[in-house]
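$ fold --in a.seq
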Amino acid sequence: MNRENRRAVVLLVLGVALLANPLYLYPDGVSSEKTYTYEASAVDYLPHTADAFYRVKSCGWNPLQSAECASIIDMARGDPVELELDPDRDVHPEFWSFDYVRADGRYFEPNATLDGRTLTLSLHPVSTETVRRNLSEDLDESPRYVRDAVRNGSSTVSGSELYETETHYVESEGRYYVVEPVESERVPTGWGWKTPSDAAIEAMRLAAWIGGVACVWRAGEWTERGREQ
């Protein structure tokens, strides 16, 4: 390959790179990062966190939510349910799909016992403190931003450090806290202290496009010169 063709190849590669610049020159979202502010609040009730939603079955009076709740309310009044099982039927170890039941303003722990082929379903009363203690996270085992929020009132965490935004229910020294995201914002990361304006980005892209066309054009000229050698 002669000198003219080598120059043509270099100019062609450079031109293609410049023409493709929107793919790498500040594509959408690359120049900023989302941050979340979490606040901690001391609470004396059991909050409706995702963990509590899946682990506690709440059955109110009005309206009656389901046939399951009808049986639960009956058991909460001290009436266990007994079922005679077929000889070839067994009971799955995780028979209940939740850890606790709330009915008639009280908390219960569901139980299932198998005596011979008789399955007995019942509810045993438990204290609210027991439920709170078992559903809450230990502060020392919580993420750093949760610990900082409890100690300082609030904390900030970047989106890259979060798997998902969620509300935390934690216990610290006998007190319970709800730590939840209260606001979010995008902060610039691309150029350190500020993000270039849309006009600046478009200007850079336009200049690169013009430069790319010029390089491709010159590559064609050098290719023609190489053929004449």
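$ fold --in b.seq
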Amino acid sequence: MNPVNPMFHRHLVAAYTVTWVFHLVYLAYVAWKWREAKRSDRS
């Protein structure tokens, strides 16, 4: 069994990192909009 190619591993880690960053940014965006909507309902 061959060891994992270091370049492949770097790209895999980069892809997972970018994916997690997108998910976290989207989650923050949804939380921000939800908070704004909640505030506007009170007024």
